[in-house]
Write a structure and sequence with these properties.
Layout lengths: L5 H5 L1 H4 L16 H11 L21 E7 H17 L8 E5 L5 H10 L4 E3 L9 H14 L4 H7 L9 H14 L3 H6 L9 H19 L5 H12 L11 H24 L5 H14 L11 E5 L8 E6 L10 H6 L2 H15 L2 E15 L2 E4 L40 H11 L10 H5 L26
Parallel strand pairs: 1-6, 2-4, 2-5, 3-4, 5-6
Antiparallel strand pairs: 6-7
């Protein structure tokens, strides 16, 4: 449970010698193959009471590992697969759940599901375009696009805090009504508003001038405009150095909005416009309310943290990649407890699946406002999977998915596959070719394992050990 210390459980027998241990090892939810895969993963955690999960359920289908060229293809393929399966009469919408480590990567899923007319709900969370930080920045864009937009002005005039309270805002609005001005025009004359405090007047005038400058500036792209707004307003400054999970999610959502704008800029190129982008986001927001067949329910989207205690016939866990799952914070801090918590989180997600479980990874994913190359999560090498021919695609999955059931490409030879698998299981210290040797023209490849074990020490010619 939240806030609990595993040490209390691990040391309980030492403190209370007559304790009788009763292990709850029978699982009533998942199939045998899903449970075996999850058990093989969590067995790598050391800070736990060892137990072997069993079930009397059917053996079921093997856990499938799907790899995609990029995250948009990942989202589109999942959406099409769900729609095809429901249309075939095999499943209802409510049979499907999609889990992710961080909220920000739900945007592309929501977009794809809406595009394929798949009804969905964001459980224990808020749809991407309804999140506060996203709505704030879109309100800034609305106001830049249309200075007469009063609702947008009211939303952002004191966000982030500028010392413009409700009373000052009310006085400004009354002044604007009396003079027949827009709120921006009235703010430029804030020192003439009756009973307006000097500090609030100065803040209002500075805000209005900033908004005018945004409107006049030629940023070249919607993505650049959003980045300019974030920088010049200091919108993300309160969270930028925070290690709080919620603050990090907010930053990621802002980055994801920039990614959405950059995709829009790329698609429309010279014809890109702020108004066009705002129309697109408005349409996507409308799709959030898409109602499906009430008897078939909706697809559920949620973070792994929110999934505990739930169960679904079919589960997708997307983004099983380094720096996402495990989260980059657990890797950066090098805390074994944090790292094991990430593994436990994946275990929880896997054991929510009753009949089918798909784990996905992409070669490129939109992160931090850019399309970034990624590598599969180390956790995937810890999961026992039934191996099948990686070149064979099942008939029910979209062909756009590059879909091996192992960590390696089917283009590799059998010898390469064996070598990589041996490297994955090797725990010896890396033997690296020195930078000096490389600079001297040594043509021999660096000798290192396919994967660096967590906690390895490496020596750098400049930075040392």
């Amino acid at each position: 449970w939240r806030g609990a210390k595993i040490d209390n459980i691990l040391k309980f027998e030492q403190d209370y010698q007559d304790t009788k241990i009763i292990k709850l090892e029978q699982n009533f939810r998942s199939s045998k193959l899903i449970l075996a895969a999850a058990d093989s993963l969590i067995s790598h955690n050391r800070l736990r009471k060892a137990k072997e999960l069993t079930t009397e359920n059917a053996e079921g289908e093997p856990v499938e590992l799907l790899h995609f060229p990029d995250s948009p293809v990942e989202a589109d393929s999942i959406a099409r697969h769900i729609r095809q399966t429901v249309e075939s009469g095999e499943r209802d919408w409510s049979d499907f759940a999609i889990f992710y480590r961080v909220n920000s990567i739900s945007r592309q899923l929501e977009l794809a599901l809406g595009r394929h007319h798949v009804p969905y709900q964001v459980a224990a969370g808020v749809a991407f375009y309804q999140r506060a930080e996203v709505r704030d920045l879109l309100a800034y864009l609305d106001l830049i696009n249309n200075p007469q937009n009063r609702a947008a002005f009211v939303r952002v005039v004191n966000v982030p805090l500028r010392g413009i309270g409700k009373t000052s805002q009310s006085r400004l609005m009354n002044f604007a009504e009396d003079k027949g001005l827009t709120y921006i025009e009235a703010a430029l004359q804030a020192d003439q508003v009756p009973k307006m405090p000097k500090r609030a007047a100065a803040s209002l005038k500075a805000f209005a001038r900033m908004m005018e400058n945004f409107s006049l500036a030629d940023s070249g792209s919607v993505a650049q405009l959003i980045e300019d707004v974030v920088e010049k307003t200091g919108y993300t400054r309160p969270w930028s150095s925070s290690q709080n999970e919620q603050d990090m999610q907010r930053l990621a959502n802002v980055d994801e909005l920039v990614s959405a704008a950059r995709n829009h800029d790329t698609i429309y190129d010279a014809d890109t416009s702020l108004e066009g982008f705002l129309e697109t986001t408005s349409l996507v927001s409308d799709l959030d309310a898409l109602e499906g067949d009430s008897e078939k329910g909706k697809v559920t989207l949620m973070t792994l943290h929110a999934a505990k205690g739930l169960e679904f016939p079919v589960v997708y866990i997307i983004g099983v990649e380094q720096n996402l799952l495990p989260h980059e914070r657990s890797l950066r801090e090098g805390n074994p407890r944090e790292y094991e918590e990430e593994r436990r989180l994946l275990f929880v997600g896997m054991t929510r699946a009753e009949e089918r479980l798909y784990l996905t990874a992409s070669s490129y994913r939109d992160l931090h406002g850019r399309s970034m190359p990624t590598i599969p999560s180390d956790f995937l090498s810890e999961i026992d999977l039934v191996q099948t021919d990686g070149t064979t695609l099942t008939s029910d999955f979209p062909e756009t998915a590059y879909r091996p059931t192992s960590l390696v490409s089917s283009d590799l030879s059998d010898e390469d596959v064996k070598a990589i698998r041996a490297a994955l299981n090797r725990t010896d210290k890396p033997q690296l070719t020195t930078a000096a040797a490389l600079l001297a023209g040594n043509n021999s490849a660096a000798s290192l394992p396919f994967n660096f074990p967590i906690g390895s020490s490496v020596r750098h010619p400049r930075y040392g050990l």
